[in-house]
Write a structure and sequence with these properties.
171 residues, mainly alpha, 10 helices
């Protein structure tokens, strides 16, 4: 059986409040951990062959735990409509993440940086960062998707990334 990880309450807290100062790479990985994706799936999503070591560090720090070792992963209980310890009230079906404007902004910025580097699409990154409402952020989605579509790998994943964005973007 393929190993799967789920966020612990500490991991959920880090996503919602950034209280533990995770680095960008670790935070991106923590966002992708959902209790459903295997280590191999995460490796394919990130393109990082050394993902197992990074997952081990997150597990050692208490942000994630093996799904097999958890009686009911927080994401699973949220998807089933049961509140998880420390979880916010509105969660999305696929990722288990709570809809959050900061999370959606970070997702858009991180994906732009992933496909265009830290200085590519800087104007769009700045506009995304400056948004203060979900309607302002939604106005930038078409431009964001066009930017993702500019890279070969981005084109392959654009629909998947758009679906993930919609799940974390507040209504």
């Amino acid at each position: 059986m393929m190993e799967k990880y789920a966020k612990t309450p500490k991991g959920q807290d880090e996503i919602a409040h950034r209280t533990h100062g995770l680095g960008l790479r670790a935070r991106r990985l923590l966002i992708l951990v959902d209790g459903q994706r295997s280590v191999e799936d995460l490796c394919a999503l990130t393109g990082d062959a050394k993902i197992a070591a990074a997952l081990g560090e997150l597990a050692e720090a208490g942000f994630i735990a093996s799904s097999a070792g958890m009686a009911d992963p927080p994401e699973a209980s949220i998807r089933e409509g049961q509140p998880a310890a420390g979880a916010a009230p509105v969660a999305r079906a696929h990722t288990g993440h709570t809809a959050s404007l900061p999370l959606a902004r970070d997702f858009m910025i991180n994906t732009l940086r992933t496909f265009h580097g830290p200085y590519g699409k800087l104007g769009l990154v700045k506009r995304v960062h400056a948004t203060r409402s979900s309607s302002e952020l939604r106005a930038l989605i078409a431009e964001w998707k066009e930017s993702i579509d500019e890279s070969r790998l981005g084109r392959k994943r654009a629909d998947e990334l758009l679906a993930l964005l919609e799940e974390v973007l507040p209504g």
